[in-house]
Design a protein that fits this description.
The protein is mostly helical and 135 residues long. It contains four helices and no strands.
């Protein structure tokens, strides 16, 4: 017979897996955004610095793959948040002012990267808060 405690444990395990999947999904979306916008920016400008978000995308994508490893979930999730915060800060405070000044399609690329990074960050923080509340 299954007790209420067993049902709670099963529910928490499912909830935890769902939170990991949402982190993984939004991290993948953000990584792809960073990849594509960065490569497009490099092709458009021939500036090597346009590839900085590309490398952050690689790091984030790699860390997202580690979310499948049960022992590395906590560490990789926190590193994903850290690297997302770093690239979000760099895009907002370093790249955005210059993009606004120059205008054009470069500004759109920066806004897309900022938007996906911001949405990912919100999802990550909400997931962490929900996980903390469920304990």
């Amino acid at each position: 017979m299954i007790s209420l405690l067993d049902i709670d444990i099963i529910y928490l395990e499912k909830l935890n897996k769902m939170e990991i999947k949402s982190i993984q999904k939004f991290n993948t979306v953000n990584s792809i955004s960073l990849f594509t916008m960065s490569i497009w920016g490099y092709i458009d400008t021939n500036s090597v610095t346009a590839l900085i978000p590309f490398f952050f995308g690689i790091i984030l994508f790699s860390l997202g793959a580690l979310l499948n490893k049960e022992k590395l979930v906590k560490m990789s999730a926190h590193l994903i948040v850290l690297f997302t915060l770093i690239i979000l800060g760099a895009l907002c405070f370093q790249v955005l002012p210059g993009a606004i000044e120059r205008g054009g399609i470069g500004l759109a690329r920066v806004i897309i990267m900022i938007t996906t990074s911001l949405i990912a960050m919100i999802i990550f923080i909400k997931s962490f808060i929900d996980n903390r509340k469920s304990r």
